[in-house]
Amino acid sequence: MTSQILNQKVVWFMKKFLFFSLMVSLLAFASFGCKPDNAATNAGSKPTVQASQNVFAEITDSEKRKVILAKKPERVVVMVPSILNYVDAVGGTIIGRPSSSKASVIPPSMEKAEDVGHVFNINMEKVVGLKPDLVFINAAQHQKFIKMLETNNINSITLQPKTYDETKEALDITGKVYGKSAEAEKLIKTMDEKITATVAKMPKDHKKRIVILHATPSTVTVELENSIAGNAAKMLGFVNIAQGTTAIQGKPEKAPYSIEALVEKDPEIIFITSMGAQDKIEKRLKADVQGNPAYSALTAVKNNKVFILPEDLFLTPPGLRYPDAVELMAKHVFPENFK
């Protein structure tokens, strides 16, 4: 009898033990299945950077690339001349910069930085050798270098400001990179106020018809609203007669020139931007534009409303001088409003 009771107790204990073991296994399996999606559950996989982790800045550049800066950059190389002014304006520092040229003056505070070559011919071996933790690049000239920089664990930010909104965006990004967002916001506010003051002096609903000719030694084109001059004209309320024209492939801010279209739409104002030797520019304009008898019949020509726009404001991005570009264009057309 005692043996039978003992056997019953052993069976009861074994059933309890098996039940407890099964519950533990189920709980462990459920816990494993509920791990966060970003956990590194496989050997060799990399943990995902979480928003809660310390990140200095998250930047979306002009090419819509998301760049995460784990810490404030301390060794910055700028490969775009116009961006030097943005960095200088927010009080940033650099270790490398492009060569100076007629169209791009190096800020005094950056003259001693290492010269990494002309913007169109950057010495990438020198750039990498400087061991930067961030490089500012231009999409048009430097897109091909992004992979090389990534291979060397170097962050890059693409900036290519032409319009006023793109200029403000570039300044905002530069401020974030250097931890100087407040300074960038003040600069943007000042620019906004200057442009607003200029626009306020323009006659209401003037709707002046304009065209912007761009001349090089080899060709003449017209500029659209996404060019520097085109954007400034739009802010001033001018009507660009070239708007809606199909852009030249690879040059979204320019369209083909046509004397027939010029005569048909008869602009009241002609602005001219140019790039290259002045004597060759004048020769090209005479051959393609001024030499045609139809040109003399244009309202703008008859009223002597043809204006040459300076390279430093309308060819190279004016940056913080955008308000100066807008004001200059307005003064050309309505000088009496700016006395």
Automatic annotation (TrEMBL):
Q: Look up keyword Signal and say if it applies.
A: yes
Q: Name one GO biological process term.
A: cellular response to iron ion
Q: Which Pfam families match?
A: Peripla_BP_2
Q: Which residues form the Fe/B12 periplasmic-binding domain?
A: 75-337
- InterPro entries, alphabetized: ABC_Transporter_SBP, ABC_transptr_periplasmic_BD
Among Gene3D superfamilies, the record links this protein to: Nitrogenase molybdenum iron protein domain (3.40.50.1980)
Signal peptide limits: 1-30
* The entry's keywords: Signal
Domain of life assignment: Bacteria
Annotated PANTHER family: MOLYBDATE-BINDING PROTEIN MOLA, VITAMIN B12-BINDING PROTEIN
* Family indicated by similarity: Belongs to the bacterial solute-binding protein 8 family.
- What is the recorded name of this protein? Iron complex transport system substrate-binding protein
Q: What is the organism of origin for this protein?
A: Succiniclasticum ruminis
